[in-house]
Design goal:
Length: 108
């Protein structure tokens, strides 16, 4: 897979337009994330080129910044799933307790 294809496929995955509300907002989020991690003067236009697969080359530090974003996104998603799972376990524990209490009340 070429570097351009890598960026084109992974930028929308990490900075999902669904989460940010639009492609432009997702590109701005990608720009905000990457500009602090790249040593060159990064422009929003460059992010758009990478997003659309129109970039003629991809710098290593741009790929590294995207990989950092992927790792950060994976950590955030993992923590969100863990907290959701904890809430569901609590809900099920309460539901089981309520169901067992109801069956004990019927037996009296």
């Amino acid at each position: 897979m070429s570097d351009t294809t890598f960026m084109q496929n992974n930028l929308p995955e990490v900075f999902s337009p669904r989460r940010y509300g639009s492609v432009k907002a997702a590109q701005i989020a990608a720009y905000d994330f990457m500009k602090g991690r790249v040593n060159k003067d990064l422009k929003l236009r460059r992010i758009r080129q990478l997003w659309e697969g129109r970039a003629t080359r991809v710098d290593g530090e741009e790929k590294d910044a995207l990989r950092q974003a992927q790792i950060e996104e994976a950590r955030n998603e993992y923590e969100a799933l863990r907290s959701r799972l904890a809430r569901l376990e609590t809900f099920l524990a309460v539901a089981d307790q309520a169901a067992s209490g109801a069956s004990l009340d019927r037996g009296r």
